[in-house]
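your task:
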Amino acid sequence: MRAKITYFLTAAVLVVYFVLAGSRGLTLIAQGTWLTVTFGVAVLVLPVIGVWFLWANTRFVTRANRLATELEAEGGLPVDELERDQYGRILRDSADEVFARRKAETEDAPGDWRSWFRLAVAYHDARDTPRARKAMQRAIALYDGKPVRA
């Protein structure tokens, strides 16, 4: 729940920023000189990119949460079997061991979105965020029945 609150607060702050930056860009464009129009367009580019980025990430998180909800209903969410140090951080050897099992499970069933979801969690636990995201994107694509590149 704390993560959701943080996400929504951050998103709200970004939206306020996008509105403020966009209004400044429009004000510059309204001045009408070649310099202010150029700066105005440049200022408008940042909110446009930001809105797209926020929309894409919100869509990704919403779809991943939908998969997690369904997997939880099936009783297929990965169990937290990771060993931790005295500070609560995941031990690397433990994460590697779980990752190896999840990878083998995914290799045995490459068309199953559930195994890709669990592999994404294992990547995340192993602190490999880019691969975790790609594995989750593949899980989402498989769930939606979309073609997946090899």
